Amino acid sequence: HEASKVPTRLLFYESSMSSEITEKLMLENDLHHALDNQELFVEYQPQINLQTGYITSVEALVRWRHPEKGLISPGVFIPIAEESGLIIPIGQWILETACKQVKQWQRAGLPSIKVAVNLSLGQLFQYDLVRMIQDVLQRTELESQYLQLEITESMTINIDHMTTMLHQLKDLGVTIAVDDFGTGYSSLSYLKDFPIDCLKIDRSFIHRIQTDSTDKALVDMILSMAKHLRLKVVAEGIEEVEQLSYLIASHCETVQGYLFSKPLLPIFLQENYDSIQRNAQNILEKLNVVE
Ligand code: C2E
Ligand code: MG
Ligand code: MG
Ligand code: MG
């Protein structure tokens, strides 16, 4: 009996492994058609300035509506896009969609806001990335000052390449933010070389900011470092008023999180722009920030 248990467990292990791989291969196969079939779309999450309650920018976040499997999150399919090389066409489509959208909002008379677009590692090794971005800005007629590119610390593996690339991007007039700052186990020395404008404090630090003294210390450290380096800061994942009041007391400039708004479809954001801002101002008024 003892002996018969082992193969069963092995079999179970193997079959669950292979079904995971099969699942991934099927998704990759489907992802090849997702762009052509118009299954990808972009949502936009507002970033709120804490002094005014105004929306200053939005982050573009891609989604995949799979015909059978329903909504698939970017946490699942972006890595598949990376491994398969599909990130190149998909990344370009996201960038173009986001720039077009923000330009359209400008034309519709909304206040001019920035759009932050996530870049992934594979894109940074795309030989014509800078040209591609320049072309997209030209085609969409979006002024480059309204585009922010988000990179992560995992992209600091090749400092020389990144330094050159980021300077070329900066020459276009776009700004650069470091996403998920503090989660990448990388040396901070890249902050000396990279022309960075903004740090985004990861949601994992914000989560227990009121109760965990380590998280509190880390957030304080990031804010003070940003101040000394003259970088802007966006705190991500603000869900509760208590988190917000801590960030206000610590002079954080901008926040993004469900407390103010989830990522929204463009039409919904456009139609509710004023009420999102009014709601933000109400929340801030109660904390005695906005008069
Ligand atoms: P990220 O760039 O750090 O994006 C922030 C994530 O936090 C988004 O998840 C957003 O919906 C979520 N979020 C924002 N506020 C809150 C909050 O208050 N509470 C909670 N629980 N979550 C919040 P999402 O859209 O699922 O994206 C996950 C990750 O997938 C992104 O993390 C980014 O790394 C990647 N991603 C998303 N869109 C794109 C894209 O267009 N291109 C690339 N390359 N990566 C993308
Ligand atoms: Mg991001
Ligand atoms: Mg992030
Ligand atoms: Mg992330």
Automatic annotation (TrEMBL):
Residues 24-277 form the EAL domain. This is Diguanylate cyclase (GGDEF)-like protein. It comes from Lysinibacillus parviboronicapiens. The chain holds residues 434 to 724 of 725 of the full protein.
